[in-house]
Amino acid sequence: MTVWTEDRIKRLRSLWREGRTAESISRDLGAGISRSAVLGKVRRLGLSALRPEPAAGENRPRPAASERTRPPAGARSEVRHASTVSPTVGRRTVLTVRRRECRWPLGDPLKPSFSLCGCPVSRGAFCSDHAAIAYRGAPQTFEQLARLAGV
DNA sequence: CCCTGATTCGC
DNA sequence: GCGAATCAGG
Question: pLDDT band at residue A97, thresholds of 50, 70 and 90?
Protein backbone atom coordinates (compact mmCIF):
# COMPACT_ATOMS: atom_id res chain seq x y z
CA MET A 1 0.00 0.00 0.00
CA THR A 2 1.36 3.30 -1.06
CA VAL A 3 1.35 5.38 2.01
CA TRP A 4 2.17 8.76 0.62
CA THR A 5 -1.02 9.81 -1.02
CA GLU A 6 -1.40 13.33 -2.32
CA ASP A 7 -3.57 14.11 0.64
CA ARG A 8 -1.04 12.96 3.19
CA ILE A 9 1.76 14.78 1.44
CA LYS A 10 -0.31 17.90 1.52
CA ARG A 11 -0.97 17.51 5.21
CA LEU A 12 2.66 16.73 5.84
CA ARG A 13 3.72 19.93 4.11
CA SER A 14 1.23 21.91 6.12
CA LEU A 15 2.09 20.43 9.47
CA TRP A 16 5.79 20.63 8.86
CA ARG A 17 5.44 24.24 7.87
CA GLU A 18 3.72 24.90 11.17
CA GLY A 19 6.75 23.70 12.96
CA ARG A 20 5.31 20.47 14.25
CA THR A 21 7.78 17.80 15.19
CA ALA A 22 8.22 14.71 13.10
CA GLU A 23 6.83 12.54 15.84
CA SER A 24 3.77 14.70 16.20
CA ILE A 25 3.14 14.65 12.50
CA SER A 26 3.53 10.92 12.35
CA ARG A 27 0.87 10.54 15.00
CA ASP A 28 -1.34 12.93 13.13
CA LEU A 29 -1.08 11.12 9.86
CA GLY A 30 -1.47 7.74 11.40
CA ALA A 31 -1.67 4.98 8.85
CA GLY A 32 1.43 3.44 10.26
CA ILE A 33 3.57 6.38 9.27
CA SER A 34 6.46 6.49 11.64
CA ARG A 35 8.59 9.38 12.75
CA SER A 36 11.37 8.13 10.52
CA ALA A 37 8.98 7.92 7.62
CA VAL A 38 8.05 11.54 8.16
CA LEU A 39 11.67 12.60 8.36
CA GLY A 40 12.55 10.66 5.27
CA LYS A 41 9.69 12.15 3.32
CA VAL A 42 10.47 15.62 4.55
CA ARG A 43 13.96 15.20 3.27
CA ARG A 44 12.92 13.85 -0.10
CA LEU A 45 10.46 16.66 -0.52
CA GLY A 46 13.20 19.12 0.25
CA LEU A 47 11.34 20.58 3.18
CA SER A 48 14.24 20.41 5.57
CA ALA A 49 15.58 23.79 4.60
CA LEU A 50 12.16 25.38 4.74
CA ARG A 51 11.74 25.13 8.46
CA PRO A 52 10.51 28.42 9.82
CA GLU A 53 13.33 29.87 11.78
CA PRO A 54 11.66 31.97 14.45
CA ALA A 55 13.21 35.39 14.28
CA ALA A 56 14.50 36.80 17.50
CA GLY A 57 11.60 37.64 19.76
CA GLU A 58 8.98 35.88 17.71
CA ASN A 59 6.51 33.43 19.01
CA ARG A 60 8.00 30.15 18.37
CA PRO A 61 5.53 27.50 17.29
CA ARG A 62 7.34 24.99 19.40
CA PRO A 63 5.23 23.67 22.17
CA ALA A 64 6.98 20.38 22.08
CA ALA A 65 9.62 20.31 24.72
CA SER A 66 7.57 22.03 27.34
CA GLU A 67 5.39 19.07 28.09
CA ARG A 68 8.20 17.11 29.50
CA THR A 69 9.28 17.28 33.05
CA ARG A 70 12.05 19.67 33.48
CA PRO A 71 15.01 18.55 35.50
CA PRO A 72 15.59 20.52 38.68
CA ALA A 73 17.85 23.25 37.53
CA GLY A 74 19.92 23.55 40.56
CA ALA A 75 22.84 21.35 40.07
CA ARG A 76 26.13 22.70 39.08
CA SER A 77 27.86 21.01 36.28
CA GLU A 78 31.34 20.56 37.42
CA VAL A 79 33.79 19.22 35.00
CA ARG A 80 35.68 16.55 36.73
CA HIS A 81 39.15 16.31 35.48
CA ALA A 82 40.12 13.08 35.97
CA SER A 83 43.06 11.63 36.53
CA THR A 84 42.50 8.44 34.87
CA VAL A 85 43.64 8.58 31.37
CA SER A 86 44.50 5.03 30.76
CA PRO A 87 48.04 5.16 29.53
CA THR A 88 48.29 1.79 27.99
CA VAL A 89 45.31 -0.10 26.76
CA GLY A 90 42.28 1.21 24.94
CA ARG A 91 39.04 -0.56 24.51
CA ARG A 92 38.95 -0.34 20.75
CA THR A 93 41.10 -0.85 17.72
CA VAL A 94 41.07 0.95 14.42
CA LEU A 95 38.83 -1.79 13.14
CA THR A 96 36.38 -1.83 15.98
CA VAL A 97 36.11 1.77 17.04
CA ARG A 98 32.62 3.11 16.54
CA ARG A 99 31.16 6.43 15.78
CA ARG A 100 31.00 8.14 19.10
CA GLU A 101 34.08 6.61 20.61
CA CYS A 102 37.31 8.34 21.42
CA ARG A 103 39.96 7.86 18.78
CA TRP A 104 42.88 8.81 20.91
CA PRO A 105 45.72 6.46 20.00
CA LEU A 106 47.33 4.46 22.73
CA GLY A 107 50.58 2.63 22.47
CA ASP A 108 52.88 1.97 19.58
CA PRO A 109 51.13 1.94 16.21
CA LEU A 110 53.58 -0.65 15.01
CA LYS A 111 52.74 -3.09 17.74
CA PRO A 112 49.74 -5.38 17.87
CA SER A 113 48.82 -3.88 21.20
CA PHE A 114 48.14 -0.56 19.55
CA SER A 115 44.65 0.57 20.38
CA LEU A 116 42.28 3.49 20.57
CA CYS A 117 40.82 4.86 23.75
CA GLY A 118 37.23 4.06 22.88
CA CYS A 119 35.61 6.02 25.69
CA PRO A 120 32.45 7.98 24.88
CA VAL A 121 33.21 11.02 22.78
CA SER A 122 32.85 14.34 24.48
CA ARG A 123 34.17 16.82 21.96
CA GLY A 124 35.16 16.19 18.41
CA ALA A 125 36.86 12.88 18.09
CA PHE A 126 37.84 12.43 21.69
CA CYS A 127 36.56 11.76 25.17
CA SER A 128 36.69 14.59 27.66
CA ASP A 129 40.07 13.70 29.01
CA HIS A 130 41.72 13.39 25.64
CA ALA A 131 39.87 16.34 24.19
CA ALA A 132 41.46 18.44 26.89
CA ILE A 133 44.78 17.42 25.46
CA ALA A 134 43.85 17.52 21.81
CA TYR A 135 41.97 20.79 21.70
CA ARG A 136 44.23 23.11 23.54
CA GLY A 137 44.38 26.50 21.97
CA ALA A 138 47.29 27.77 20.04
CA PRO A 139 50.25 28.53 22.27
CA GLN A 140 49.99 32.04 23.63
CA THR A 141 53.51 32.43 24.74
CA PHE A 142 56.88 31.49 23.50
CA GLU A 143 57.31 29.26 26.48
CA GLN A 144 54.20 27.31 25.63
CA LEU A 145 55.34 26.95 22.08
CA ALA A 146 58.75 25.77 23.13
CA ARG A 147 57.24 23.26 25.49
CA LEU A 148 54.91 22.03 22.78
CA ALA A 149 57.85 21.59 20.47
CA GLY A 150 59.67 19.68 23.14
CA VAL A 151 62.52 22.14 23.20
C1' DC B 1 18.04 8.86 30.06
C1' DC B 2 14.82 11.77 27.24
C1' DC B 3 14.11 14.37 23.03
C1' DT B 4 14.96 16.56 18.25
C1' DG B 5 16.14 16.55 13.08
C1' DA B 6 19.67 14.44 9.74
C1' DT B 7 21.65 10.82 7.36
C1' DT B 8 22.55 6.28 5.55
C1' DC B 9 21.66 2.44 2.84
C1' DG B 10 19.33 -2.12 2.03
C1' DC B 11 15.14 -2.87 0.32
C1' DG C 1 11.19 6.15 -3.30
C1' DC C 2 10.88 4.30 1.14
C1' DG C 3 11.94 4.17 6.13
C1' DA C 4 14.36 1.60 10.11
C1' DA C 5 18.44 2.25 12.05
C1' DT C 6 21.62 5.14 13.26
C1' DC C 7 23.91 9.48 13.93
C1' DA C 8 24.54 13.95 16.15
C1' DG C 9 23.22 17.49 19.06
C1' DG C 10 20.40 19.44 23.02
Answer: confident
What distance, in Å, lies between the first and last C-alpha atoms of chain A? 70
Chain B bases closer than 7 angstroms to a protein Cβ? 2-8
Alpha-carbon span A3 to A33, nearest angstrom: 8
Q: Coil, helix or strand for A151?
A: coil
Q: Nearest to residue A126, comparing CAs of A89, A95, A97, A96? A: A97
CA of A39 to C1' of B9 (A): 15
Å separating the CA of residue A88 from the C1' of nucleotide B11: 43
How does pLDDT run across A40-88, given as a tens digit for each residue?
999 999 888 766 654 443 334 444 333 333 334 333 333 344 445 545 6
Q: Distance (Å) from CA A97 to C1' B8?
A: 18
Q: From residue A124, how far is each of A66, A70, A134 by CA, in Å?
A: 30, 28, 9
A127 Cβ nearer than 7 Å to chain B strand: no
Q: How far is CA A145 from CA A18, A133, A151, in A?
A: 53, 15, 9
